[in-house]
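Run log // design_07
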């Protein structure tokens, strides 16, 4: 099985354990509390990881818990951080995250963006001195839940090569958009600007799987099927110069906060004592400026219907975000954990003195 297949496989394969979302959330929260976060912050970080798991986005799920714990214990993530507003221009706010967990500073920033959008029609919050924030869609959905069009972006350490280049120079620099429709029918985009996220290679490495050609190049700039060589080399930009251009735009947005740009960001997998000092960008936009929110929602719903009806030979194309939403609906409140991930999570639990993650008992 290829890594692309394994990342999206059904949650009923016998070699995987099953975990209920509630149990996973409670367990991850406990691990993070024992590592040094307070209860509220631990719940935010855990919720972002379980959000990704339930949507089948393994690259940003519990796979990330171990490195978060290592960074909290070592100090690269400040478990007692207090994010501060350092510039306030009304519709534009700049925050210093104080090396807080990325999901914590991101949630704080989203809520400010929504508050300012209620008053000004748009709220833009840029963050410096941040850390890895997980799945971008976690934040845009929070904004959309409040009734606003949500945008989010974040830069990372340099892992993407330029078209025609070989050495990494820009980050995966993900960006996301969520439309304020009811969650079950909400179109949304969440994408890395690389062909795949770095987490896809980490999943392949953990499962001892090859990666498709085109995802990454080795240190000599040659296409590779080895996730180890790809991690040592560089990821390819999505769509060539188009993805590279989008990644560049993300760096220009987070630089508004005085954040470090990709070549200066500390790698997530580097010395856990060092904060990443990356940047985050969040925007909330009122959808009822030109017409009622209902009118806006009706037009976006009609656009989604047009996408669904554009197929041929019985094929029904999907709008952005629908594959992830379908996996969440099919999950029945549980998610799969591979043996390699379960082993890694057991080591994390032992490190902080908590019981291992409990699996749903297998039926006889």
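design_07 sequence
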């Amino acid at each position: 099985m290829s890594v692309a297949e394994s990342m999206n496989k059904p949650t009923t394969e016998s070699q995987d354990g099953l975990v209920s979302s509630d149990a996973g959330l409670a367990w991850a929260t406990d691990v993070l509390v024992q590592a040094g976060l307070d209860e509220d912050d631990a719940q935010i970080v855990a919720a972002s990881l379980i959000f990704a798991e339930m949507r089948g986005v393994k690259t940003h799920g519990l796979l990330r818990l171990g490195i978060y714990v290592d960074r909290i214990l070592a100090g690269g993530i400040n478990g007692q951080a207090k994010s501060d507003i350092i510039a306030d221009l009304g519709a534009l706010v700049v925050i210093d995250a104080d090396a807080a967990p990325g999901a914590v500073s991101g949630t704080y920033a989203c809520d400010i963006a929504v508050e300012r959008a209620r008053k000004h029609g748009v709220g833009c919050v840029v963050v410096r001195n941040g850390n890895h924030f997980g799945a971008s869609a976690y934040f845009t959905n929070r904004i959309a839940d409040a009734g606003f069009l949500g945008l989010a972006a974040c830069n990372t350490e340099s892992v993407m090569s330029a078209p025609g280049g070989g050495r990494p120079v820009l980050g995966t620099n993900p960006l996301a958009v969520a439309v304020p429709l009811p969650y079950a029918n909400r179109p949304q985009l969440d994408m890395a600007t690389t062909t795949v996220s770095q987490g896809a290679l980490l999943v392949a490495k953990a499962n001892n799987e090859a990666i498709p050609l085109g995802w990454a190049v080795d240190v000599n700039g040659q296409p590779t099927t080895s996730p180890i060589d790809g991690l040592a080399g560089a990821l390819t930009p999505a769509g060539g110069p188009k993805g590279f251009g989008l990644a560049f735009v993300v760096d220009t947005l987070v630089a508004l906060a005085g954040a470090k740009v990709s070549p200066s960001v500390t790698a997530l997998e580097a010395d856990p004592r060092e904060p990443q000092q990356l940047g985050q960008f969040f925007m909330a936009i009122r959808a009822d400026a030109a017409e009622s929110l209902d009118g806006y929602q009706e037009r976006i719903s009609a656009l989604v219907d047009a996408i669904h009806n554009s197929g041929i030979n019985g094929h029904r194309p999907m709008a952005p975000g629908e594959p992830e939403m379908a996996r969440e609906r099919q999950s029945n409140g549980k998610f799969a954990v591979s043996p390699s991930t379960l082993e890694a999570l057991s080591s994390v639990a032992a490190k902080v003195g908590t019981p291992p993650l409990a699996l749903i008992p297998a039926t006889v």
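Residues 1-13 have pLDDT under 50 and may be disordered.
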